[in-house]
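Now for my pick.
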Amino acid sequence: MRYRLWVFIATGLFVIGLGIGLIVSITMPTGIADFFSEELSVLEELATAFGPSHAITAIFIFFKNASALLFCFIFSPILCLLPVLSLLLNGSLISFISVIVVEEESLGFLLAGLLPHGIFEIPAMIIGQAAALYFGVSVIVALFSREKNILMPRFKQSLKYLLIAFILLVPAAIIETFVTPLFMQ
């Protein structure tokens, strides 16, 4: 099982999530907006409390994203459910919110808010979730395999890619905190 295959699978799941979010936002825009209104108000309060251009905000964003990846990685042996759900949900939320932002603001506003940090954060998420999928499937295969010692090399390789994802989350958090707000004005 080559790691590159898992990156393609993770990317495919993310793209499927984008499609689901787009379809949902077009077919039921008011019902979904009402469903997420409470969650969005909590996020707005959190954003106000931390505020842009504060180091604590960048630290919070990094640890939130890193802990989500680590959580998915740790629990990935349970049929790979968390990495799959994370990729589908994140893709869906991005496209759903993108439709709302484009309708209320503009495509340029959306790109200014998403691209600066998204060029690091989205690949980090895909690489990290691919590592989780690879590790989860490796554990499941090891349970039924007669070969010994297949798990440790795959675990080490998965950790290597998870570390790369964590490294990519650092500039993503810094850019999201200090650069993205400049483009959003």
Remarks:
- The radius of gyration is 18 Å.
